[in-house]
Amino acid sequence: MGRLSIAETREVVVHRGSSRVLSSTSFSLEEGQLVAIVGENGSGKTTLIETLAGIIPLREGGVYWRGKEGKIVTVRDSEGRRNAPPPMGLTLQKDGICGDETVRERMSASLEVAGLKVGNEVINNLLETWGIYHRSEDRVLQLSGGLRRRLSLLCGIAPAALRDEPTAVLLDEPSEGLDKSAKDTLVGWLRALSSRNHGVVFATHDSDLIKCADRVLYINDGHLSEEKGESSGNLCVLPETCTSEEPSPIFSAVRWALRTEYRNPIDTIGKATPAVVCLLLAYALVGELDIDSHGSELLAALVLAPAFITAISSPAILHRLSESDSGRWWDAVVGPMARPAFSIGGASILLPIPIVYLSWFVLAGSVDPNTSSEVLWWLWLPALSMLDLAVAATSLHLLVSDLSRSSAVPAPLLLIVLVWPFLELTDALAAIIDGGMEFSLTLQDPIITCLIASLISALVWLGAVLIPDY
């Protein structure tokens, strides 16, 4: 009986810029195989790995994985269809790890997205085997290059090592930066994964890794040629497999975004700086506004403007996702739902509400006390709708960052569309200032106006997360 395919490409054509890197390339990774991809720098080794992972858009062809109960999953094709791959292991050439994560958190996240929820004892044993347990509570940015690479490899291999089901593992230049001891451990784990029927494909120049492969694929001018490998190397003892469950990579991504934000909030707090500058400039120019002479619309606009600036500013998560290809790793394991997840988990949801209240206290000092009391009671309504606007703005920033030439598309031009919900919120606050809160359910009612603003923001968000990356 022949071996079953775990993942494959069918007649894929991939361009990097104007250059064709893969030309009608078909490749199949089968159960129990170690496949080495060999070629010169720039020949397309990394492109083939990332194509298998579903990261790279295709000009032609498709990428297909075998999922649960043998169901074929279209991970990506040239017609725009895309789905998250089945649980897998992945190590990118640039590690794909954000420096704000701790070693233990990164290990836990890589297992969780594969449907493996294990205790600290299992994680400790894994880290001990690879010689990084003593740094388990340190942030990744504090690790040396060699230890960081060990962690990246372990996070790519462990999801398969702990699973019973045949699992695909994709490794890009896995031995880069490893010492001899770590390389021997890597070869032993690769051979052991093969013995458990997992499939591993890795791009490498390392002769020791090439010798351990069952198949050696040479890539040249976008075409593959193949020869039989030596299949050499000693097997190591892998940890016992764990019970797996249906993975929830979307929730894992949101938790990761919130956790890294909580640990290092300085970037988000820094977003308050332009808001405070806006507030001080407004106060310096007009002082405490007199509604009778300036109008409630101007007061409402100035009160909401600092929070609006905070909401549309570039979110901190963009920097974290760009670090060492962290965003590409999450894009691979989460699939097309990565952008929706990060637009929610990475939006500024802490600052808009307190900034709106601060602006009111600074700019509305001359407002009648009875009116001010009524406004303060309902000020949370437009402030809360500002959170929807912040999520929409984050999705637009992520949309631009996902483009192949993100620097060629200035995000501020797209953000102009969010002026519309801002004006709706300004009308809502002006109505509260003029006549208090009303519940007439007409288009001029503050609640209806805020709902319209939220609906517009939701439509912008939906459009931004549905547009595929090219």
How would you portray this structure in words?
- Helix 7 (249-263) packs parallel to helix 14 and helix 9 runs parallel beside helix 15.
- This protein has 2 domains: 5-228, P-loop containing nucleotide triphosphate hydrolases (Rossmann fold); 249-466, no CATH class.
- The protein is 50% helix and 14% strand.
- The strands form 2 sheets. Strands 6-7-8-3-9-10 form a 6-stranded mixed β-sheet. A 4-stranded antiparallel β-sheet has the order 2-1-4-5, with helices on one face.
- It is of the alpha/beta class.
- The longest helix has 23 residues, at 380-402.
- It is elongated, with a radius of gyration of 26 Å.
- It is built from 20 helices and 10 strands.
Chain-wise SSE layout:
Layout: E1 5-16, E2 19-30, E3 34-38, H1 45-52, E4 60-66, E5 72-77, E6 89-91, H2 103-112, H3 120-129, H4 145-161, E7 168-172, H5 180-195, E8 199-203, H6 207-212, E9 215-220, E10 223-228, H7 249-263, H8 266-270, H9 272-286, H10 291-294, H11 296-312, H12 316-322, H13 326-334, H14 338-345, H15 352-363, H16 369-378, H17 380-402, H18 411-415, H19 419-435, H20 446-466
Parallel strand pairs: 3-8, 3-9, 6-7, 7-8
Antiparallel strand pairs: 1-2, 1-4, 4-5, 9-10
Helix pairs in contact: 2-4, 4-5, 7-14, 9-11, 9-15, 11-15, 11-17, 11-19, 12-13, 14-17, 15-17, 16-19, 17-19, 17-20, 19-20
Based on secondary structure, the structural category is alpha/beta
Extract low-pLDDT stretches: none
| Largest sheet, strands/sense/barrel | 6 strands, mixed
Please report the total strand number as a whole number: 10
What do we call the CATH topology of the largest domain?
Rossmann fold
- Going by CATH, the homologous superfamily of the largest domain would be P-loop containing nucleotide triphosphate hydrolases
End-to-end Cα distance: 40 Å
Outline: elongated
Task: Please provide the ordered H/E string of secondary-structure elements.
Answer: EEEHEEEHHHEHEHEEHHHHHHHHHHHHHH
Helix count, DSSP H or I runs of 4 or more residues: 20
Q: Into which percentage range does the β-strand content fall?
A: 5-15%
Instruction: Return the average pLDDT rounded to an integer.
Output: 88
CATH architecture of the largest domain: 3-Layer(aba) Sandwich
Q: What radius of gyration results from the CA coordinates? A: 26 Å
**Biggest sheet: strands side by side, in what order?**
6-7-8-3-9-10
